[in-house]
Amino acid sequence: MDRHSTSSAMQRGPVIILLALFCTILWGTAYPAVKIGYELFAIDAADGFGKLLFAGLRFTLAGLMTLAVSIVLQKKLVVPEKQHWKGIVLLGLVQTTCQYIFFYLGLANTSGVKGSILYALATFFVVIFAHLLFPDDRMTMQKIIGCCIGFAGVFLITFEGGGLGGGFALTGEGFIMLSTLSSALGSIISRSVTQGQDPVVVTGYQLTGGGLVLILIGLCGHGTFGAVTAKGLLLLFYMAFLSAAAFTVWTMLLKHNPASRIAIYNFLIPIFGTTFSVMFLGESVFNLRSLAALALACAGIYIVNKEFVRKGAC
């Protein structure tokens, strides 16, 4: 399949839906997987550097998996040209290193359910950044209304006085918000960096580089694992696979579509994240406040991108 036909396929509504569904299901499983990983590797609750070491191993392995796929597909190791390295390094630092420093530390201090709902913020950040940076992705009144509704849901779940999550903490919910900001910036950078480049190659190098920085930070901080078991290693390989697969496919979608058109599907992450957190962590989500917050967040994201739905994106 040539570049033109690949681009055309990636812009078709059914293809976007199926690939975005694949990515968001995988990312939804990451919320309980991270917490289970802390238990399997016996990482002390106060050992933030141990958590970053765990994250670094995951993303370095994911990057190597992605590069291995690239080698199989192209029958050689593709090395980006010199002028492209700056963008790839920046993408790795923002989308992998910064995003997951805040994600891993923040998720240790809040629930998987709450963390997954807060991820809805990423969509609104993408919409705002796309308006500022891309002439073809401008803010509209419809998007403003959607953002207000979505932020209402995030506010509802974050600043409740009790019940699910117990309110707001900088090192919990605050870090998750900073993680979503990094994720949104990464989406914008990714759309620019991948122009004229193979998304698989870009993903492989940015994950590997960003993961190695996380490992370095973890080791410098004397992060440790209290245990290494077969179950823990299997979970680590699964988490590496989900990152490799989801980031590669998502990067391909961003390359061929406006950033806000793809951002609509982020609403699925809170749904899958809460579902898997309930299934595997036994967390409670079935109360009026949390369900209302989830509904508002999803409704806001849908409204933000409604024009794309009308054009056939859904």
Question: What is the overall pLDDT average?
Answer: 84
Roughly how many Å is the radius of gyration?
A: 19 Å
End-to-end separation in angstroms reads 24 Å
Q: Which structural class do the helices and strands define? A: mainly alpha
Strand content: under 5%
The overall strand count is 0
Describe this structure in words.
This protein has 14 helices and no strands. The chain is mainly alpha-helical and 314 residues long.
Briefly, what is this?
With 314 residues, this protein is mainly α.
List the helices and strands and how they pair.
Elements: H1 3-10, H2 13-40, H3 48-74, H4 85-107, H5 112-118, H6 121-133, H7 141-158, H8 170-193, H9 199-220, H10 230-256, H11 259-263, H12 268-281, H13 288-304, H14 306-310
